[in-house]
Amino acid sequence: MSTSGRSPLSLAKQTYAASLKAAGRGLVKTGLAKETAPPVEERWRHWAHSLTKVYDSLAMAKLDVPWWTYDAISAVDAWLSERDRPIRVFEYGSGASTIWLSRRAEEIHSVEHHKGFGEMMQRELAGEEKISLRVIEPVASDDPVVPSQKEGHAGLDFEAYVNAIDDVDGEFDVVVIDGRAREVCLEKAKDRLAPGGIIVFDNSRRRRYVEAIAASGLKETIHAGLTPTLPYPERTSVLTKG
């Protein structure tokens, strides 16, 4: 496979993921580890098992976890169990969270910017009537209306991706922000929350996200710490209207 155009960081992540997956297969083959994950409640054991599933959304889905911190997973799971039905969800960024939420909510609308990944998820989710997953790629532009600060995304306009929420009527009990142009997604999402609804904003420790959340006027509850598949702590925030 050609590596042209890939950053050293991207190549390092790919190498790291491949080595851990190979190690996981080896442990299972020799009987030193099981194929099935420990219960999520056994957090440290579950996390250790998850390390061999890094950057694999479908493998993570089998662990019954989204790619948020364990504290955030626990908090959102408890919130969903107490919420009146039906529960409607909108997601910026599909993956393991889409499958996890579909087991806990009645209606999922997800938008994905990456064509290859999005089409793979569409095939995986085919037949799931409660899930609507659209792929909306960014368009090349010399002057993007909605740019992304993500490395390698210069000169791309995510306006249609961010505005995808406008194509779905009604309010949402949960909005997940875990894709591109998250600061603008937040501004769009906060006015679409149902009373008492929540926004799950992942990787919220990044400076530009800290600033966007502070400017949003929403109340933030930070859930930091251990995260499935990651060898370092992360941060997921749950946002509510005051």
Describe the 3D structure.
- It is a single chain.
- The chain contains nine helices and nine strands.
- With about 240 residues, the chain is an alpha/beta fold.
- It has two domains: about 10-55, no CATH class; about 70-240, Vaccinia Virus protein VP39 (Rossmann fold).
- The strands form two sheets. A seven-stranded mixed β-sheet has the order 3-2-1-6-7-9-8, sandwiched between helices. Strands 4-5 form a two-stranded antiparallel sheet.
- Helix 6 (about 115-125) links the parallel strand 2 (about 105-110) and strand 3.
- Helix 8 (about 180-190) packs parallel to helix 9.
- The chain is globular.
- The N and C termini lie far apart (about 50 Å).
- Residues about 1-5 and about 20-25 have low confidence and may be disordered.
SSE arrangement:
Layout: H1 8-29, H2 43-50, H3 57-62, H4 70-82, E1 88-92, H5 96-102, E2 107-112, H6 115-125, E3 131-135, E4 139-140, E5 156-157, H7 159-162, E6 172-177, H8 182-189, E7 193-202, H9 207-216, E8 219-225, E9 234-240
Parallel strand pairs: 1-2, 1-6, 2-3, 6-7
Antiparallel strand pairs: 4-5, 7-9, 8-9
